[in-house]
TrEMBL record, chains A, B:
<dbReference type="InterPro" id="IPR015421">
    <property type="entry name" value="PyrdxlP-dep_Trfase_major"/>
</dbReference>
<protein>
    <submittedName>
        <fullName>Aspartate aminotransferase family protein</fullName>
    </submittedName>
</protein>
<dbReference type="InterPro" id="IPR005814">
    <property type="entry name" value="Aminotrans_3"/>
</dbReference>
<keyword id="KW-0663">Pyridoxal phosphate</keyword>
<dbReference type="InterPro" id="IPR015422">
    <property type="entry name" value="PyrdxlP-dep_Trfase_small"/>
</dbReference>
<keyword id="KW-0808">Transferase</keyword>
<keyword id="KW-0032">Aminotransferase</keyword>
<dbReference type="GO" id="GO:0008483">
    <property type="term" value="F:transaminase activity"/>
</dbReference>
<dbReference type="Pfam" id="PF00202">
    <property type="entry name" value="Aminotran_3"/>
</dbReference>
<dbReference type="InterPro" id="IPR015424">
    <property type="entry name" value="PyrdxlP-dep_Trfase"/>
</dbReference>
<dbReference type="InterPro" id="IPR049704">
    <property type="entry name" value="Aminotrans_3_PPA_site"/>
</dbReference>
<comment type="similarity">
    <text>Belongs to the class-III pyridoxal-phosphate-dependent aminotransferase family.</text>
</comment>
Length: 441, 441
């Protein structure tokens, strides 16, 4: 049972693929550091100043156009005109809270619910995925009477006090509290050919460990694409036995869809749906408003009610009509422009292209993913060991070729391939060329 | 030492001045309840459906125009054209995160910092006041090595797990954890003529109680207008001895400016400034973007750095360029339209008018406040006891006369007079007439 603090996405971003004191400081960087201080998380040793963005592209002050394979918030495309128009129109008309009835809010909630399992008929709107996960953990605790939470070892679920406790990748020192146990992610590296069975066994071991600690389990909290663990998607279905094990012990399954949700994985609208499971709680965020700050948690009415007997919950900005307008536009664009299908097809093109490269490049150790969420493991040629230094060099070389990309995984040696859902074939091929050149250079 | 769970703002809103099962249900209300479930917090027994809002006014579906004396988010006025234009322009150009440099973000941070004490030179942008307070508590703990938090007995600081622990008014049952102690608010009701001395003594008693519990204090966390406690503003300066007592015990002072900040109290831009204290941490939210979801925490660089050695902190939506544009527009409008001065002058007009009414209406027990944040205690005529039932009847009668208003305070018997900062004299007089009629009816 791994309860240590592992290396993780945030750690890598903060400490590896990032600006560090001592790097060349342009005036704009000095200014930023003076404003944000130690909480500054600028990317790249020479950070980029951005001035505009459209579709899959971001434009820097020096005129460089970057193909965005990193940012998963502007999921239907940067500055999408439908979202822009929806926000501009609604914010000029009415922006208030859920203490009043506003038709567009319920229109949005119903549109969103049409994508969700019918049992999860209550949606609490929040501002961030962190708030959604913070709430979901408390709902799970109120509903089960337990407190124990199982997460994966490099998980990231957000930035509140409670959610940071369940985010091993956010810890720089110290260890997880007793009521949080981190298990290995569902990878072939850990479980060989029986990922589903191995993952279930590690959940059962964590439950047994909770038993020894005198703690009742409350929930398995998992990002169903295991983004910061390094992206683990296959075989579809591997989540089901783990969820069954958790339920057998009286706990719930919280699907953190902040990363895989909203059509990114191509085969389904949600990451959990690929695995044939119905979560007890679903949290969502990032791409939900294509950049308008909004997030939410879907729950069964009885679970939400059991939480609400203990405390009142109100979220001032959550469920405001402007967020509803942005969210509706996002759902409309995904449907009308067939972005789920595009994620599937363009994702397959990327997967095939990356596997072609892997076939001739021994340092590309493995390529895996679903839809437009792909992980590429980079390794030392001789030993096959994860190679974080190579990953940093590739990220920098990609930037020099006009492609934005980041890393994930316990060793920071997995490239996170995560373009907007509107990516076209030419852009996918441009990425593949840039990656081929970067890995060879 | 009061460590019980008192009645509070949220409790009142949820259980008193709100839609309840069994009330007449229109179709729109049924729809909302089906969507939000137990987390629904609709106002009024017959909730209002809103369709538009402008300046100090909200417009319902049936055409009724309501003068908004409740909502403190659209502080420079509902649908303010400057904010609308700023958001519409920036969201069409670039909406990204703080991993890149974007000039407008630093422009905003510098404009905001020009209003803050110079020592608090780092600002972490978040999505909500809850996230800001959640972070501030952790920063205070990291900086002091303590864990104890002192709050007032009907305080509300937000909705995350950690912040709910410090919000006695959000608890429906159960009690505060050992590391949170609630003290009486700085009111004449508790401390007679020596509010400053009495409040300091209760902070010292809480510190002593922490000592008996073996807990080191981390912070006094206070909304400097004591909004949900019932609005306590005078005498200006009463916070200083309490803050000194906390600092003498090694703790910090977190000024929660989510309610009083951004010029509302008239005499100063922040509530704490009226009291002549410089906080160690300042949190802000609600009116910051006039409804665009944004919030933040200002800290001394060394305090933020001590927190960031333990965990990484990144907020996906926090500090996005659209929030910066909205925030800049808010600061511009406050300055250009002289809204702080207007809060002072129109606030005085309201205070005088309400005191006139109080002079002839024994059920109006006390009127107090600063700028456009005024509390009006309603009481039984014979006994002088706080009268929550009367307060509900007045709130309903005001609604019938086209004025939105809410309640606060331990007994839910304090009207919370909190109009937008752009309120003009005619609107103030309209409110006074409506209140006079409501209290007499």
């Amino acid at each position: 049972m791994n309860t240590q603090t592992p290396q993780g996405e945030v750690r890598q971003i903060l400490e590896m693929n990032a600006f560090k004191p001592g790097d060349t400081k342009a005036e704009a960087v000095e200014r930023r550091l003076a404003n944000l201080g130690a909480a500054s998380v600028l990317f790249y040793r020479q950070p980029i100043e951005m001035v505009a963005a459209q579709g899959a592209w971001m434009i820097a002050r020096d005129g460089t156009r970057y193909l965005d394979f990193y940012n998963n918030v502007p999921s239907v495309g940067h500055s999408h005109p439908r979202v822009v128009e929806a926000v501009a129109t609604q914010i000029g008309k009415l922006n208030t809270n859920t203490r009043y009835i506003v038709a567009i809010v319920d229109e949005y909630l119903e549109a969103l619910k049409s994508h969700l399992p019918a049992a999860l008929s209550n949606v609490v709107m929040t501002c961030s995925g962190s708030e959604a996960n913070d709430l979901a953990i408390r709902v799970a605790r109120a509903a089960t009477g337990g407190t124990g939470i199982i997460v994966t070892e490099t998980a990231y679920h957000g930035n509140t006090a409670l959610v940071t406790e369940t985010s091993p990748s956010a810890l720089k020192r110290g260890s997880l509290p007793d009521h949080v146990i981190a298990v290995p992610p569902p990878s072939a590296g850990h479980f060989g050919n029986d990922i589903a069975g191995g993952f279930r066994a590690s959940i059962e071991a964590a439950i047994a460990e909770f038993g020894r600690r005198g703690i009742r389990p409350a929930a398995l909290l998992a990002d169903s694409i295991f983004s910061s663990d390094g992206i683990f998607a296959d075989p579809a279905g591997f989540l089901r036995p783990a969820v069954e094990a958790m339920r057998a012990a009286g706990g719930l399954f919280i699907a953190d869809e902040v990363q895989p949700g909203f059509a990114r994985t191509g085969e389904a609208f949600w990451g959990f749906a690929r695995h044939g499971v119905t979560p007890d709680l679903v949290t969502m965020g990032k791409p939900m408003g294509n950049g308008f700050p909004m997030a939410g948690m879907a729950a069964k009415p009885e679970h939400l009610a059991s939480f609400c007997t203990d405390v009142g919950y109100f979220n001032t900005f959550g469920g405001n009509p402007v967020a509803a307008a942005a969210g509706l536009a996002v759902l409309d664009v995904i449907r009308e422009q067939g972005l789920q299908q595009n994620a599937l097809e363009t994702g397959r093109l990327l997967l095939d292209g990356l596997r072609d490269i892997a076939a001739s490049e021994p340092r590309v150790a493995e390529v895996r993913g679903a839809g437009l969420f792909i992980g590429v493991d980079l390794a030392e040629e001789e030993t096959g060991r994860p190679d974080a230094d190579l990953t940093v060099r590739v990220i920098d070389a990609m930037r020099d070729q006009g492609v934005l990309i980041g890393a994930a995984g316990r060793y920071g040696a997995t490239l996170k391939v995560r373009p907007p859902l509107c990516l076209n074939q030419a852009e996918a091929e441009q990425f593949l060329s840039a990656f081929r050149a970067a890995i060879r250079s």
